Amino acid sequence: MRPEPLAALVLTLSLATGAALAAERLVSVDGAITEIVYALDQGARLVGVDTTSTYPPETKSLASVGYKRALSAEGLLSLSPDLVLATDDAGPPEVLDQIRSAGVEVRQVPDAATLDGLREKIGAVAAALDAGDRGETLNARIDLELKQLEQRLGQIESRPRVLFLMVVGSGIDHSAGRGAPVDTLIWLAGGENVLHETVVDYKPLSPEAALAAAPDVILVSDRALKDLNGIDGVLGRAGLAATPAGQERRVIALDNTLLFNFGPRLAQAAEELARQLGTFRDPEVAKAGD
């Protein structure tokens, strides 16, 4: 029996829509997006990732398309992707235009480093992969984990004053203020970013600014701690040795991906930072959660 014309049209449109959503050769151009893809159990679709995508370990077996802000159309198109997921800072823009001109969909997803922004980002990635239900489940799980963390922290009367140090390029010292992922992370862990009010995103850090900020704790990535040859190397940057944190040699390090990938492991990152800051209400509860 042949389908009626209207029914046939509906069937055709449904199949076309499903084909558009069911991307099978995916390239992720952002570390947090990559983590979200895996958390949605869609990692098998990935054929390539950028250099910020180093977690989970499965990413090591995937082709690299280079740094997210210095992409090559030729290298990316050689993977024959049918969908590229990226954030707004991916580029250069002309390269993304070349990829689109080749018939590949490039979908740029929201990237605000807030809890609402993370929910929106997960929802956008899930929608792009036709995995909306999984996205809702993931967001609910993260909300629960953060609620449990908040309960373990309790009412914090005095938040440790934290200064984040990042060394970039040819060795220029940077820190972070509001809008940066680490700013939200510090607050969730029970700390206070000393540059929250005066700095937006990532900015160069001068010795004068570091001294005026008077941090209790200096936070770095584990990679930076290694590259700077330990605590002495950290305290030799931007006049940090003269700060209260420097005088007490209070430097803590967090896994690089936990610091910079504002994604599904946000609660885990905040929990680890809280443990090192000592902000848990009950130290024994903190140990039990390790």
From TrEMBL:
Coiled-coil stretches noted in the UniProt entry, renumbered to this chain: none
A Pfam family matched in the record: Peripla_BP_2
Identification of the protein by name: Iron complex transport system substrate-binding protein
Domain Fe/B12 periplasmic-binding: 25-285
UniProt entry keywords in alphabetical sequence: Signal
Keyword check for S-adenosyl-L-methionine: no
Listed PROSITE patterns: FE_B12_PBP (PS50983)
Keyword Methyltransferase: no
Range of residues in the leader sequence: 1-22
